[in-house]
Amino acid sequence: MATVDTPDTPTAKRTAEALAPLTDKPHTLFEDTQAIFTGTLFVSLALILFAQVGLITGGTAGAAFVLSHLTGYSFGKWFFVVNLPFYGFSWKRMGPEFTLKTFVAVTALSLMTEYSPRLFAIERLHPGYAAVLGGLLLGSGCLFLARHRASLGGATIVSLYFQQVKGWRAGKVQMAIDISVLLIAALILPRDRAIYSVLGAVVMSSFIYINHRPGRYTGS
Predict the structure, then answer these.
(1) Which of 72, 74, 199, 210 is most exposed by smallest CB count within 10 Å?
(2) How far apart (Å, rounded) are the C-alpha atoms in residues 164 and 149?
(3) Alpha carbon separation from 75 to 62, 72, 122, 168 (Å, rounded)
(4) Could you tell me how far CA 136 lies from the centroid of its own chain?
(5) What is the pLDDT of residue 37?
(6) For residues 95 and 19, what is the distance between their CA atoms, to the nearest angstrom?
(7) d(CA 58, CA 116)
């Protein structure tokens, strides 16, 4: 018989504790707004770099890249659609605040990836450089969002949930999900681009693994 988490169950308590602010002083609306904007901007730049040299990232972004390649519809549209099924799970397990901030971040990223390429152009870019820089931008952007109780949906919701409930490091869970998506995406990528895509995913997940772990900024 299925069980339902209540405010008194261990799972609900661990989730509530893990989602508590990283300091005693809650973030203001302005602080949340600038963090969500900055985080999504960093991620949009990384995705533009990847698209420029034909790389693919993991998670729902990777799924959106693949669907965009197969259908011809833009990445931004697919990224918004692919994340829709995760909001119900996020609302139940992570709470309304996290879910609403995540929805804002996903929507903002979808719009940024649609319009940012019209604002600048890159003439020359090595895929290895794009993989490392893009991976760091992705990790930094996701970390901005995580510290303000938000995410970019999909795999990030799942990885943060397992960190908060099971104590599994979010970077490890994220890496496992990303590698799984990239293995599937490798079927449509040239071999060298698949290898550089894996490099980008490893750089991103390693950054999150090192900088985002339980108790890192709470003195515990």
Answers:
(1) 72
(2) 12
(3) 9, 9, 19, 30
(4) 12
(5) 96
(6) 9
(7) 21
- Nearest of 57, 89, 87, 88 to residue 75 by alpha carbon: 57
Task: Please name the residue that has the structure tokens 């995540």.
Answer: 102
- Radius of gyration of the chain measured on its C-alpha atoms: 17
Q: What is the pLDDT of residue 66?
A: 84
Question: What residue type is 118 in one-letter code?
Answer: R
pLDDT higher than threshold 70 for residue 202? yes
Residue type, 64: A
State the pLDDT confidence band at 216, using cuts at 50, 70 and 90.
low
- Give the Å distances, CA to CA, from 135 to 12, 54, 64, 72: 32, 14, 17, 25
Q: Which residue has the tokens 């990836």?
A: 113
Query: Are 50 and 56 within 8 A, CB to CB?
Result: yes
Dihedrals phi, psi of 65, to nearest 5 degrees? -60, -45
**Paired tokens of 45:** 């730049």
What is the per-residue pLDDT across 66-114, written as a single tens digit (0 to 9) for each?
888 889 899 999 999 999 988 988 888 888 999 999 999 999 999 999 8
